[in-house]
Amino acid sequence: MMNRPALWRTIVALIISSALSASAQAQSIGDAMVTFLEAQVSRRIGGGESAHLAIEALRVGGGEFYAGDLGADSPSDGDSVWGTLVTVLDGSSGNLTDSNAGNACQPGDVLQFGGNAVVADVSYPTNFTAVVKSINSNSRPSAVYQQNLASVRTVQSASINLKKLSAGWIRIYRPITRIDALGSWKFTVLNNSASAQNYAIMFDINTVSTTNASATNTVGSFFVHKITTDGTVPCVVNHDNTIYVETGKGNEIYSTDDGSLAVRQLDE
Asked: Are 175 and 63 contacting, i.e. CB atoms less than 8 angstroms apart?
């Protein structure tokens, strides 16, 4: 029989091993997110909103991207949660505070801006979202990927110095691994055509939901879905076009060269 000190050493070793494994998984997701976003610079992701950039990067990287499985908005409605909280930077009092200064950031972490955040001479919109590209020697973000800042609705890489946060706050989140369950399907749909489109989510002959997606490059042109079925693969139906979905994949309604509509799975 294992003696008590040896048992405790084994338990501690298992806890450390589990923590290291979770950290490695998060880093792997973050690396995949950075690789994806670097390839998207100067291109529009989703409907061009800042949050769409984070959602699609998480989806492609294997992170949880469905808001309903990430927890309630915090601290207020509209302040999206993106995973495990790393730290909160607060400049609202005029004196910058860091709630967990010893907790290192990683590339791929997600920044949520709030309270009319101002960094240096940049004012960020309410509920703005960005993804960490690189960190400095203090393990804080030195560059980010962002979209829809100053009406630039394509992915941009920008330097950032969070020591210059003089108003508002920034919450930094570590991505968590998406857990796929049998009969549960998480996917995105983008309307990339010039006109509004209605599409349905169906399995067998059952219509689960219908969505009116606005024209390309608008907040209402991009949607995240989670569907539970009896195991039957659901599909996206737009007019006479149907595509069976895969969990963790993106789908696009688009116009072909001859002007007709089609639906396809996004290349990643």
From this structure: yes
Residue in this structure with the two tokens 């949660």, named with its chain if needed: 81
Which pLDDT value is given to residue 25?
63
Q: The tokens 């009092």 sit on which residue?
A: 93
Locate tokens 């209402």: which residue?
220
Helix (H, G, I), strand (E, B) or coil at 128: coil
Tell me whether strands 110-119 and 122-123 are parallel, antiparallel or unpaired.
Answer: antiparallel
Q: What is the overall mean pLDDT for the chain?
A: 92
The pLDDT of residue 19: 41
DSSP state, residue 159: E
Q: What's at 162, amino acid-wise? A: L
Closest by CA to 151, choosing from 252, 11, 50, 29, is 50
> What average pLDDT does range 92-102 have in this prediction?
93
Indicate yes or no: pTM above 0.85: yes
Q: Which residues of 9-27 are buried (b: 16+ CB within 10 A; e: fewer)?
A: eeeeeeeeeeeeeeeeebe
What single string gives the DSSP state of each residue in 9-35? HHHHHHHHHHHHHHHHHHHHHHHHHHH
Indicate the helix (H) or strand (E) that contains 7.
helix 4-40
The Cα 46–Cα 26 span in angstroms is 23
pLDDT of 151: 94
Confidence (pLDDT) at 261: 96
Give the fold, CATH level 3, of 184-265. Immunoglobulin-like (2.60.40)
Distance separating alpha carbons of residues 161 and 136, to the nearest angstrom? 9
C-alpha distance from residue 209 to each of 67, 201, 226, 237 (Å): 18, 5, 11, 11
- Which residue from 144, 141, 148 is spatially nearest to 125, judged by alpha carbons? 148
